[in-house]
Amino acid sequence: MTGALTLGPIGNIFYFVDQFDEAVEWYTTRLGREPVVRGGALVAFDIDGVRLTIHKSDEFNSPGPTGVSAYWTVSDVDAIVADWTAHGAVAHRGPKTVFTGERLCQLLDPFGNLFAIREAPRSAGVESGASS
Questions:
Q1: Who is most buried in 3, 26, 27, 48, counting CB within 10 A?
Q2: Per-residue pLDDT tens digits for 57-73
Q3: Bridge-based pairing state of the strands 68-73 and 10-17
Q4: Taking the domains of the chain in order of start, what are their residue ranges?
């Protein structure tokens, strides 16, 4: 890639939790709103146009300060993954398309930092499914 990378606004922030059901209930009450997406290992809340996703912890991400992933919106996840991995980054989680239609990838930069990117769904209205 040449030139400046175009990053859109942060579109989705993931919190990874061990006590999934309890966390969903807690955030539902604290935020005063119901999740807009439910499926598999995650639920997502819409907070004024930004998603807050509560995801069950797993082998890739654990709870706590290291269990937060803010996803930058980009136009082409796969092109960025190809460029960044060619220059020392490692695909940590993904790239993959999740049931919401978003294309996601968490990359580890050569210095061990997590950089997460998302591509908006290509077709509107994809909001149900069973896994993430």
A1: 27
A2: 999 988 887 878 899 99
A3: antiparallel
A4: 10-119
